[in-house]
TrEMBL record:
Record-linked InterPro entries: Serpin_CS (IPR023795), Serpin_dom (IPR023796), Serpin_fam (IPR000215), Serpin_sf (IPR036186), Serpin_sf_1 (IPR042178), Serpin_sf_2 (IPR042185)
Family listed: Belongs to the serpin family.
GO BP term, example: negative regulation of angiogenesis
Cleavable signal peptide: 1-19
Signal is among the record's keywords: yes
Descriptive protein name: Serpin domain-containing protein
Source species of the chain: Monopterus albus
Pfam families reported for this sequence: Serpin
An MF annotation (GO) of this entry: serine-type endopeptidase inhibitor activity
Record's keyword terms, sorted: Signal
UniProt GO cellular component terms: extracellular space
Segments forming domain Serpin: 55-401
Length: 406
């Protein structure tokens, strides 16, 4: 309730600014009509499920890696763990599906729905490329049916490793190829030498804005939690059309910035300079983000946003226990992969993301500068969402942009 009231008051301020710019108001009306009802079709329900898995994964990682930069492309992790589920017993499948949030879908065509979703978010204009594949240790006697099943469904064939240093090169080359050369050095050390199953997932994101930024790399101050401010390159633009709102419960201001091909970036900027975003992290769900997006109001702002170039990698295996898979990890039942008892030995994940000032529209030049500004100049959280399906493509917490490099 409190939240609604605050947004209404905020809305009045915004509509005042809006009234001064006729063109802005028309654009906003156009966007409204395009809005797709979420959670009603099999693909959007699947979008919500993969997002909820993604938020859970992010939360677990965020709580383990307090006060650091972290990034995930959860949809690629959903893809590879779903491939893995095809190698499990009924019990294993049930447990994995629960962690992946598929259990509420009651979708008899689940794999086809996921395949459709993955294809739609990978359309080139959206700027996302990804890789997801199961690699099986050399010493494992693998059931051929598993290869055929996964390849038939997802178009990517699990691969038996040869053992030794060649494997690392083989996996890295494949990931690089699948991501258009953007995700390099996926593995930096050889895989564990046990006869296990390795789940590989990676993604590269570089979306284009709808509205371009005039200034691309102006050095600006960024206030780090508990430290001096640092100088980082920012993209800047006056009269930039965004959707905006404030959340008094979470003490942050939210901006939604449109990207091409029906993708958007949501930025959650805490009111205070803090790297502790626990409260915010805890509230993220597909439904929360969807409800929130419906309350955001169009505004033209002076926008300044860090020019991000980042790469991040982690092994998700230690996180799975906190996603309700602790019991499954003890006894994995991957009987359709091999008759020998086998286990997951790694779930490596690597993401690369870049932002660029490009967009195919120029902001409408207002006679007077924007009344509002949105300066992303201290730690923040962001997510990239495919608006058509509601699927979470990318999520990150930026605590210190100086530490980010590709
Ligand atoms: C982070 O904030 C939450 C509540 O907002 C608090 O409970 C927690 O103790 C904080 N964590 C740290 C490390 O300060």
């Amino acid at each position: 309730m409190k939240r609604t009231t605050f947004l209404l008051v905020f809305g009045l301020i915004l509509s005042f600014c809006q009234a001064q710019s006729e063109t802005g108001a028309e654009e906003a009306a156009g966007e409204e009509e395009q809005h797709v009802e979420l959670f009603t079709t099999p693909v959007t329900k699947m979008g919500a499920a993969t997002s909820d898995f993604g938020y859970n994964l992010f939360r677990v990682l965020a709580s383990r890696e307090a006060a650091t930069n972290i990034f995930l492309a959860p949809i690629s992790a959903s893809a590879v763990l779903t491939q893995l589920s095809m190698g499990g017993s009924e019990r294993a499948e049930r447990q994995l599906f629960r962690a992946l949030r598929y259990h509420t879908l009651q979708d008899p065509q689940l794999h086809n729905t996921l395949k459709d979703l993955l294809l739609s978010v990978k359309t080139p204009g959206k700027g996302l490329s990804m890789a997801a594949r199961i690699y099986l240790a050399r010493r494992l006697r693998v059931t051929q049916d598993f290869f055929t099943l996964v390849e038939g469904q997802y178009g990517v064939r699990p691969k038996a490793l040869l053992g030794g240093a060649r494997d690392m090169k083989d996996i890295n080359d494949w990931v690089t190829q699948e991501t258009g050369g953007k995700v390099q050095r996926f593995l930096t050390k050889p895989l564990p030498r046990n006869p296990g199953v390795n789940a590989v997932s990676a993604a590269y994101f570089k979306g284009k804005w709808v509205t371009r930024f005039g200034e691309s790399r102006v050095l600006q101050n960024f206030q780090v939690d508990g430290g001096a401010s640092i100088r980082i390159p920012m993209m800047q633009q006056d009269s930039y059309p965004v959707k905006m709102g404030a959340d008094s419960d979470l003490s942050c201001t939210i901006a939604q910035i449109a990207m091409q091909d029906d993708v958007s970036m949501f930025i959650f900027l805490p009111d205070e300079v803090t790297s502790n975003m626990t409260l915010l992290e805890e509230s993220l769900t597909a439904e929360f983000v969807q409800d929130l997006s419906l309350t955001l109001l169009p505004a033209q702002v002076f926008l300044s946003l860090p020019a991000l170039r980042l790469s991040y990698s982690t092994d998700l295996l230690p996180l799975l226990g906190d996603l309700g898979l602790a019991e499954w990890l003890e006894d994995q039942d991957l009987e359709k992969i091999s008759a020998q008892p086998t286990k997951l030995s790694s779930v490596n994940h690597k993401v690369v993301m870049e932002t660029a000032p490009e967009g195919n529209q120029y902001p409408s030049v207002a006679a007077t500068p924007s009344h509002l500004s949105y300066r992303v100049d201290h730690p923040f959280l962001y997510l990239i969402r495919d608006e058509a399906s509601g699927a979470l493509l990318f999520i990150g917490r930026v605590v210190n942009p100086k530490d980010l490099t590709i």
